[in-house]
């Protein structure tokens, strides 16, 4: 009797198993399955072992995409973190200005990602775009559809416009959490505003900034929708980041095997960075409680 | 070092104050003599911290002037006033070592490294921080952190005054006593002006030469601990200082006597004469330790009923009923304790008359 009852408890966690199975395990195992087969069509598939992995690892274009991706993510951090902190420092501390700033900052975060790509296409098009046309009329040749550098600048500008508000909001939350007594003590101690920033604000923001770095690095590492809509990975493949390249292989060329192998490697890279950041975050935590 | 004067200072945290009740500080006129050890005593929310912040320059008062000696500093920020302030909770520069924390106020003022080193070492010596100088400040205990905050207040030699805003709240009781002693020592040695905010009367009375008692945004009395105890100028002082607080009995004037519930207590002629010029309501006030208790009737003795006896170790607290009033009496240990019915006498020297909360004198 007892045994039967305790077995019935499995029914209670069954929904979780089903959800996790359908949302993670089955899709992931399908990808693993694809990655070791050559698929020509329904019912026409051959086991190829590690061949796709070998091919993908030696794929020159994947190396380029990875380097591009890392460069992109690093530039994102270098631009967005300082800019976000500057915005947070410049924000009002009380009154109606706070609410106004928060709403303004939240706007880019609320727009669907492919819409952001569309907005920036129309904004920067050299023939009709408000910004693109203006720059060209000023005599500076600018065309993100034809010139790699212009494409990069546009993608970066879009990314910074889209995500700096998140960094600013995090930094602002960190700043607001500093008790007034710190600022008062700094005034009494005769500290310059640089010293206040260096010795009070920055150390107190360390926790939120670590989270900001982590979020922005991972997110930008997985970026897809906005640059896909804006440049489609071009001109050439100069803005083809990892996920764009992946989709090109999987959907464009319908090479499901290599794409699956690529996905798994991509997944492992993301996992590796997650682990590194998690370690860093843990250290920040212990550093503060010591 | 300087004499600090507050002239008709009032402060409101509202932008357009109308009522007197909008003011956190109401018309403060005080002089802090150079080299004095002052305590600012009062309940939470009475304006102590506001007053301190006005002296240091963290706040600009709504009205009135702040003078350091004869220099008007009302509109100057703290860094131009040459003042030190220690806050209730430890403020540390987490990324710096203890040494750098203590040196920070000096370095910001561009002192040469030798002077900085000498001063930091002196202060660390006084506060027993010498062994920790090289450590990161962030890793220390709450006590040590507050000592560093105190140290940053003490490290500058030439300040007009050092202001303490309940600095020992977060400190362990035994260390509290030790640090208070240290501050007192420093004061005796350097004769700096110290202003010490607290809501703890023991702290105020042991630390300061002069105590200012604040109540609802006003300074109700400034005096030595003895004066505050023997001559409370305001009902609040009588009630706030001393344990238990002063007894108050609502009364009416009848010639040179205060009468209540059919009983009468004689007053001295002078007090009675002055009281006739004042508006009521009147109250009699007497400290529990000055109220005499007898076990037999006699001249000027009023019958009471003993309600409760509390033994506090070196003394006892009696609660007695006098007509419709409940009074506290503090009896020395060796005195016999009456039970049931007893008689109290109000010694004239210690019986005070208050008109509308203020001492008639």
UniProtKB/TrEMBL annotation, chain A:
<protein>
    <submittedName>
        <fullName>Carbohydrate ABC transporter membrane protein 1, CUT1 family (TC 3.A.1.1.-)</fullName>
    </submittedName>
</protein>
<keyword id="KW-0813">Transport</keyword>
<feature type="transmembrane region" description="Helical">
    <location>
        <begin position="260"/>
        <end position="281"/>
    </location>
</feature>
<dbReference type="Pfam" id="PF00528">
    <property type="entry name" value="BPD_transp_1"/>
</dbReference>
<feature type="transmembrane region" description="Helical">
    <location>
        <begin position="207"/>
        <end position="225"/>
    </location>
</feature>
<keyword id="KW-0812">Transmembrane</keyword>
<feature type="domain" description="ABC transmembrane type-1">
    <location>
        <begin position="66"/>
        <end position="277"/>
    </location>
</feature>
<feature type="transmembrane region" description="Helical">
    <location>
        <begin position="98"/>
        <end position="123"/>
    </location>
</feature>
<keyword id="KW-1133">Transmembrane helix</keyword>
<feature type="transmembrane region" description="Helical">
    <location>
        <begin position="12"/>
        <end position="36"/>
    </location>
</feature>
<dbReference type="GO" id="GO:0055085">
    <property type="term" value="P:transmembrane transport"/>
</dbReference>
<dbReference type="GO" id="GO:0005886">
    <property type="term" value="C:plasma membrane"/>
</dbReference>
<feature type="transmembrane region" description="Helical">
    <location>
        <begin position="70"/>
        <end position="91"/>
    </location>
</feature>
<keyword id="KW-0472">Membrane</keyword>
<feature type="transmembrane region" description="Helical">
    <location>
        <begin position="160"/>
        <end position="178"/>
    </location>
</feature>
<dbReference type="InterPro" id="IPR052730">
    <property type="entry name" value="Sugar_ABC_transporter"/>
</dbReference>
<dbReference type="InterPro" id="IPR000515">
    <property type="entry name" value="MetI-like"/>
</dbReference>
<dbReference type="InterPro" id="IPR035906">
    <property type="entry name" value="MetI-like_sf"/>
</dbReference>
<comment type="similarity">
    <text>Belongs to the binding-protein-dependent transport system permease family.</text>
</comment>
TrEMBL record, chain B:
<dbReference type="InterPro" id="IPR012340">
    <property type="entry name" value="NA-bd_OB-fold"/>
</dbReference>
<dbReference type="InterPro" id="IPR003439">
    <property type="entry name" value="ABC_transporter-like_ATP-bd"/>
</dbReference>
<dbReference type="InterPro" id="IPR008995">
    <property type="entry name" value="Mo/tungstate-bd_C_term_dom"/>
</dbReference>
<feature type="domain" description="ABC transporter">
    <location>
        <begin position="4"/>
        <end position="241"/>
    </location>
</feature>
<dbReference type="GO" id="GO:0015408">
    <property type="term" value="F:ABC-type ferric iron transporter activity"/>
</dbReference>
<dbReference type="InterPro" id="IPR003593">
    <property type="entry name" value="AAA+_ATPase"/>
</dbReference>
<keyword id="KW-0547">Nucleotide-binding</keyword>
<keyword id="KW-0067">ATP-binding</keyword>
<dbReference type="GO" id="GO:0016887">
    <property type="term" value="F:ATP hydrolysis activity"/>
</dbReference>
<keyword id="KW-0472">Membrane</keyword>
<dbReference type="InterPro" id="IPR047641">
    <property type="entry name" value="ABC_transpr_MalK/UgpC-like"/>
</dbReference>
<dbReference type="InterPro" id="IPR015853">
    <property type="entry name" value="ABC_transpr_FbpC"/>
</dbReference>
<dbReference type="Pfam" id="PF00005">
    <property type="entry name" value="ABC_tran"/>
</dbReference>
<dbReference type="InterPro" id="IPR040582">
    <property type="entry name" value="OB_MalK-like"/>
</dbReference>
<keyword id="KW-0813">Transport</keyword>
<dbReference type="Pfam" id="PF17912">
    <property type="entry name" value="OB_MalK"/>
</dbReference>
<dbReference type="InterPro" id="IPR027417">
    <property type="entry name" value="P-loop_NTPase"/>
</dbReference>
<dbReference type="GO" id="GO:0005524">
    <property type="term" value="F:ATP binding"/>
</dbReference>
<keyword id="KW-1003">Cell membrane</keyword>
<protein>
    <submittedName>
        <fullName>Carbohydrate ABC transporter ATP-binding protein, CUT1 family (TC 3.A.1.1.-)</fullName>
    </submittedName>
</protein>
<dbReference type="GO" id="GO:0055052">
    <property type="term" value="C:ATP-binding cassette (ABC) transporter complex, substrate-binding subunit-containing"/>
</dbReference>
């Amino acid at each position: 009797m007892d045994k039967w009852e305790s077995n019935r408890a499995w029914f209670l966690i069954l929904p979780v198993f089903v959800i996790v199975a359908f949302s993670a395990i089955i899709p992931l195992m399908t990808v693993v399955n694809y990655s070791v087969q050559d698929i020509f069509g329904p019912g026409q598939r051959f086991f190829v072992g590690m061949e796709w992995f070998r091919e993908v690892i030696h794929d020159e274009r994947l190396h380029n995409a990875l380097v591009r991706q890392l460069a992109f993510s690093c530039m994102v951090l270098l631009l967005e973190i300082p800019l976000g902190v500057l915005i947070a420092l410049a924000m009002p501390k009380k009154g109606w200005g706070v609410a106004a700033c928060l709403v303004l900052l939240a706007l880019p975060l609320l727009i669907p990602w492919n819409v952001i790509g569309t907005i920036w296409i129309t904004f920067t098009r050299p023939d009709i775009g408000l910004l693109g046309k203006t720059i060209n009329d000023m005599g500076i040749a600018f065309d993100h559809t034809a010139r790699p550098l212009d494409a990069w600048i546009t993608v970066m500008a879009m990314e910074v416009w889209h995500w700096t508000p998140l960094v600013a909001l995090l930094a602002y939350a960190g700043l607001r959490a500093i008790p007034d007594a710190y600022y008062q003590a700094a005034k009494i101690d005769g500290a310059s505003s640089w010293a206040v920033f260096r010795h009070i604000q920055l150390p107190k923001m360390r926790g939120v900034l670590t989270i900001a770095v982590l979020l922005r690095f991972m997110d930008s590492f997985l970026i897809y929708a906005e640059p896909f809509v804006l440049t489609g990975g071009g001109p050439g493949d100069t803005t083809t980041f990892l996920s764009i390249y992946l989709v090109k292989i999987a959907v464009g060329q319908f090479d499901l095997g290599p794409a699956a192998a690529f996905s798994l490697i991509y997944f492992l890279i993301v996992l590796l960075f997650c682990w590194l950041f998690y370690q860093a975050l843990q250290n920040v935590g212990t550093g503060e409680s010591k | 070092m300087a004499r600090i004067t507050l002239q008709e200072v009032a402060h409101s945290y509202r932008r357009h104050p109308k009522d007197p009740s909008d003011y956190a500080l109401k018309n403060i006129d005080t002089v802090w003599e150079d080299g004095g050890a002052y305590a600012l005593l009062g309940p939470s929310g009475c304006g102590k911290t506001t007053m301190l912040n006005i002296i240091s320059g963290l706040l600009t008062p709504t009205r009135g002037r702040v003078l350091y000696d004869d220099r008007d500093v009302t509109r100057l920020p703290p860094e131009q006033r040459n003042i030190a302030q220690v806050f209730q909770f430890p403020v540390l520069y987490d990324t710096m070592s203890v040494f750098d924390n203590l040196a920070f106020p000096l370095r910001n003022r561009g002192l040469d490294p030798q002077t900085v080193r000498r001063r930091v070492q002196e202060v660390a010596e006084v506060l027993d921080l010498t062994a920790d100088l090289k450590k990161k400040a962030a890793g220390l205990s709450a006590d040590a952190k507050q000592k560093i905050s105190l140290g940053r207040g003490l490290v500058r030699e030439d300040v007009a005054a050092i202001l303490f805003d309940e600095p020992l709240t977060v400190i362990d009781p035994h260390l509290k006593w030790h640090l208070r002693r240290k501050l007192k020592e420093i004061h005796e040695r350097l004769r700096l002006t110290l202003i010490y905010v607290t809501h703890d009367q023991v702290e105020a009375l042991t630390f300061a030469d002069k105590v200012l008692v604040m109540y609802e945004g006003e300074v109700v009395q400034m005096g030595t601990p003895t004066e505050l105890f023997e001559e409370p100028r305001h009902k609040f002082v009588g009630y706030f200082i001393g344990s238990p607080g002063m007894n108050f009995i609502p009364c009416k004037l009848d010639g040179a006597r205060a009468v209540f519930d059919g009983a009468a207590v004689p007053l001295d002629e002078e007090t009675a004469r002055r009281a006739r010029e004042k508006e009521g309501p009147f109250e009699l006030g007497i400290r529990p330790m000055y109220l005499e208790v007898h076990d037999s009737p006699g001249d000027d003795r009023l019958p009471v009923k003993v309600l409760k006896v509390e033994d506090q170790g070196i003394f006892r607290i009696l609660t007695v009923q006098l007509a419709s009033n409940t009074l506290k009496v503090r009896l020395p240990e060796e005195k016999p304790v009456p039970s049931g019915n007893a008689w109290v006498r109000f010694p004239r020297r210690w019986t005070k008359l208050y008109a509308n909360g203020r001492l008639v004198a």
